[in-house]
Amino acid sequence: MRDFARFLLGRRARQRWIHLVLGGALAMPYFLVGSVILGPVTGSTDVFGSFPLQLASFGVGLPIAAVTSLFPLTRPLESAAARWLCGVDADRLAPGPARTRDEKHRTAAWFTLHLGLGGIIAGMSLALPPFAAVLIALPLVAGLRGTRLGLPEVLDHTWALALAPVVGVASLLALAGCAAGCGALLARWAPVLLGPSPEDRLAAAEARAADLAVRNRLARELHDSVGHALSAVTLQASAARRVLDSDPEFVREALAAIEDTTRRTVGELDAVLGVLREGDAPGTAPAPTLAAHLDGLLSRTRAGGARVSATVDADPEALPPLLSREAYRIVQEGLSNALKHAGERVAVTVRIAVAGGNLEITVENPVTGPAPSRPGGGHGLRGIADRARLLGGTTTAGTAGPAGDLWRLHVRLPMKGPA
Fold it and tell me: Which residue numbers delimit the Histidine kinase/HSP90-like ATPase domain (predicted)?
């Protein structure tokens, strides 16, 4: 019973009732135009005095309303009204004007439906409440009886007087039921007639996919850049602390490497975060590449005490910019994983070569024990695999060697692959 009462007179039902009354108000000019047309056609001088002619005027006005619904602002305004008053989710409605023929046809159908149902409910809302009030008060107010108000003579009978309040209340309930039903019908049809077209949905899906791709790329950049910097700085500071008294020259080199690492990382971080700041231009720090920054990466890693040997059998200057950038990040993350899991004194071997039209990157280090677990860790290899897959390459990682005492990361990137 409570749900039924909420359906008839709840907040949502009242808002939809207002939406219908607004449709009736919008229908009035078209109704007047229809009456002007029907007057000369039927030869009637009093169209408003005939209920059939009123209905015919209303019917003539609706096709005219359908034509005027082609005005560009019709769909945005109707979508806003359906969202606020009918309770339709915004993502199920198209915010912009109708552009294609199908969208215009659906907008015309919606506008006609809104004004048609709105005109009926608005007319009932004007006529039924006074009539119901008279019927409810009829047994109590003797002055309302008789034919002075145009009421039928049968209402003078005792049994009719007893039933009049019941009929009045039933009329009000019927009005509320019709308004609630028509409001629910409009709410159901709004996404169908005012919703986005398949082209709009495809464009929105593509925009979301592009946004997710950008976010994933930024997440990889932050993980690789900041993660490597923190690992390198931690190892450099730890190594410097241990030899602070015995090897001042090494300490100075480690502090210089820390300074260089943090400065470079802050620049990269600013470049990445600049993309996320709405209205801001991206940061000016250039993306690191294999050609320009590999030597610096290796020297900063060695400053922490790691023994890194690198063999480059390729010309980094000849690599495409995108491939050079992604290859640098892969080498950076490979070194980070080796330092995190094998220790700061680990011997790491890096090989970069061109074979069979592919750029092959291999990072190896000895396995010193089980890999430590880190809260939130485990994204490095996944990021490398994502980078390789986007370039059309492949990634393999795992133990190698006769005794399984090596950890090997091998990435193959096509020299000419998908951008």
Answer: 326-401
Range 7-34 average pLDDT: 94
Residue with the larger pLDDT of the pair 287 and 351: 351
DSSP-derived pairing of the beta strands 358-366 and 347-355: antiparallel
Query: Is pLDDT above 60 for 109?
Result: yes
The residue written with tokens 């009354």 in the block is 21
- Specify the CATH class of 204-414 in words: alpha beta
Cα-based distances in Å from 209 to 206, 223, 232, 328, 383: 5, 21, 34, 26, 18
The pLDDT value recorded for residue 402 is 76
Q: Which amino acid is at 28?
A: M
Please report, for the chain, the start and end positions of each structural domain, with discontinuous segments joined by +: 2-195, 204-414
In sequence order, the 6+-apart residues with CB closer than 8 A to the CB of 108 are: 66, 67, 69, 70
Q: How far is CA 201 from CA 118, 192, 215, 404, in A?
A: 30, 13, 21, 51
Q: Is the Cα torsion angle 241, 242, 246, 251 positive or negative in sign?
A: negative
